[in-house]
Amino acid sequence: MDMKTSSSEKDQAWTVVIRPKRPWWDLNLSELWRYRDLIGLWVRREFVAVYKQTILGPLWHVIPTLISSAVFTVVFGNIAQISTEGTPAYLFYMAGNTIWVYFSGCVSSTSVTFAVNVGIFGKVYFPRLAMPIASIISQLITFGVRLGVFLALWLFFLLSGSSVHPTGWVFLLPVLLLIVAGMGFGLGIMISALTTKYRDLQQLLGVGLTLVMYASPIIYPLSEVTGTLRLLLLLNPLSPVLEIFRLGFLGKSAISPIYLLYSVGFTIVVLLMSVIIFHKAESTFLDTI
Questions:
Q1: Rounded-to-integer distance, Cα 84 and Cα 134, Å
Q2: What pLDDT shows up at residue 237?
Q3: Is 285 exposed, middle or buried (0-12, 13-18, 19+ CB in 10 A)?
Q4: pLDDT digit string, tens, across residues 130-154
Q5: How far is CA 164 from CA 13, 84, 158, 159, 254, in A?
Q6: What's the pTM?
């Protein structure tokens, strides 16, 4: 009886084989595709969870951006008198906030992948990258909502005769989104993996994002910054993305689009580093969290 059972088990064809170690470059994308339905469920969960049991519902995806743009207009545009190069102040700040909120949302949502889902990871197997990927897709959907509001305001100012001149660079929008998503995804899962050992990183994340925001041309045009400070701001890979986004929709930019290649290179490096760190943390994080 034991011999028959052993033979039956030996001949059984397994559909999934879980191995303890894989090379860092093995992303196993075919496995992620096989779990696409699960990713879809998580995307829906993350998108709906923001406005579930609220009165205003999906409007909460755009209300913070609208309010922060209004605050920037009053504080930096009217009180501090920071130039927006002739562009309507509210539209200028809205353009910067639209990209920034997408980036910060990608980093914040993926940076808690391990800490928030440790209970699920310890009970059932699935590709661990599925969760941060679902977060990025969810953030892309909310970006689409915010972009729709921005385009409505942009069209209003354009038809009212304001100093807004769209250019052909607007067609680079999908490329800009890929760059921002790649940076946010890479930095987010890198932080998530490191916080399994260094909890301080999660506490410092909010402060770090605030510093990056002020180091990006969101509340001021890059043309107003000169000298060494300008060179430092150009080291921020988000700066070219923000400038090209404004060049496409508003017709003004302080740098050449060639700087976008720096952002692409930075994103590739961050993604490679994050994959290495993620794979190293994936096999041990249940013992450290």
A1: 36
A2: 94
A3: buried
A4: 888 888 998 999 899 899 999 999 9
A5: 63, 12, 6, 9, 15
A6: 0.85
